[in-house]
Amino acid sequence: MIAVCPNPYRDRELKVTKKVLELLNNEGFEACVCPLFAEHDAKVIPKEIKTDCLKLTASRCSLVIVIGGDGTILSAVRELRDKPIPILGVNLGTKGFMSTVEVEDLPQILNAAKNEMNISRRMMLDVELKRGDQVILSDCALNDVVIHGHGDCIKVAAYCEGDKMISYSGDGIVLSSPTGSTGYSMSAGGPLVEPDAENIIVTPICAHLIGSRPFVLSSDRVVSVKAEKYHGKKAYLSVDGIFACDLENGDLIITKKSENYTLMADLGFKSFFDIAYEKLR
Questions:
Q1: At a CB cut-off of 8 Å and minimum separation 6, what does 215 contact?
Q2: What share of the chain is helix, strand, coil (3-state, %, to 5)?
Q3: What distance in Å separates the CA atoms of residue 45 and residue 51, rounded to the nearest whole number?
């Protein structure tokens, strides 16, 4: 079983999805459509398309084809969680660093369907929010963990296993995986890191500190960020671009390498460097 997971707000009338289904069916592959973001929105799901829930079908899937942008892939990752199923991205977004296939190259998906692909094993991050002695939230991210002010300048301090790395006032801080290095971290001035690498990248956001620089840490490090001295200013935590919760003064956000991994299908047509060069020039 191959799950085809479109973002119906990008794939209007599921035109690309229908082409993907046609390609798969003509080669004898069984496929099901599992929309993301709009599972029950009749306005964007054509009546003739029968849909399933990705969570329910995942255990029977050998491949997940995601049609949309990087945000759509992140949504699929959250649905799959710890299920080791390769994900192939068809890019309908703007940058699409995580997508392997462009719309004009749709027949390439048959290579993945026939298992003619490499598997890119992507490190994930576990995040835990502690408030006093209580754990308020636990989550897992493929891209990044972000602490950010609600339009206010906030003060944050980052520690690597108890040693203070940096303390400053600014817009916030990004803790990212190598996969997430091409996202918000890059926009904030962080380095690009090969997605198959295993590192934790710590990137300040608009720090009021001339000497602020991003850090690239070993994957076995544990990074803690303390929310300090808000003085009535508000901040929030987001995980893979999704709002998680508002923060309070003194909250501690602990991030480390997860035992979970995401498997991305790599068809081998372009390297990470080819993709970065094309999309960033």
A1: 160, 165, 166, 201, 202
A2: 20, 40, 40
A3: 9
Backbone angles phi, psi at 130, to 5 degrees: -110, 130
Cα–Cα–Cα angle for 123, 128, 134, rounded to 5 degrees: 165
pLDDT tens for 226-251 read 977 656 678 899 999 999 999 988 89
Which tokens belong to 113?
């369907």
| Residue 162, phi then psi, degrees to nearest 5 | 95, -20
Helix H or strand E segment including 258: strand 252-266
163 belongs to the catalytic site: no
Contact present, 255 and 220 (Cβ < 8 Å): no
Spatial neighbors of 187 by CB under 8 A, at least 6 apart, are: none
Model confidence pLDDT, tens digit, residues 130-183: 999 999 999 999 999 999 988 778 899 999 998 999 999 999 999 999 999 999
Q: In angstroms, rounded to a whole number, what is the distance separating the alpha carbons of residues 250 and 241?
A: 23
Buried b (16+ CB within 10 A) or exposed e, 14-31: bebbbbbbebbeeeebeb
In angstroms, rounded to a whole number, what is the distance separating the alpha carbons of residues 98 and 76? 12
Q: Which amino acid is at 222?
A: V
Of 70, 139, 144, 251, the catalytic one is: 70
Q: Would the pTM count as exceeding 0.85?
A: yes
* DSSP code at position 51: B
